[in-house]
Amino acid sequence: MDRQFELTITHAKQFERFFGWPVLVIFLISFIVMLRTQATWVIPVMLVVSIGMAYKGYMEYRVIRPFAEHQNVVRVLRYRLVDCWISAVSLFVLFIPMYVNEDAFILIGGIVALWGLTRSYREKKWEERIHAHQSELPTYEEVLEGGENIWNYHQK
Hints:
Layout: H1 3-19, H2 21-37, H3 42-64, H4 71-95, H5 97-100, H6 102-117, H7 119-133, H8 140-146, H9 148-155
Helix pairs in contact: 1-3, 2-3, 3-4, 4-6, 4-7
């Protein structure tokens, strides 16, 4: 296995363990506390959560990119990365107007909700594009769980 790819897989596994459930619990508790007390300390917490989401999307791109054999698959992987970044930024931006202007919060909340509602449609279309060019592309989870077996299969 390529040494750089092996380090990327190891780093992605460590990030998943660190950033998975603990941050989700912190996010939910912070959100509930913020709604009850109007605490402004939630904005930096949401910044950390959104940076983590964007970094996770970047790690998914770095892990899956070596398996892409067609340029159109790489393009779709980049679209998915940009989509992840937009989701992360919109999650952070949603919380700032809550303290400044409630009307802006409602407007931005509606935009974020529409973006979230169309996520499954976008994912389905991206999967169709990927399978049209390369049907055997492994998923992020398969690569993290399979490790060297997936890499060896890809090299054959």
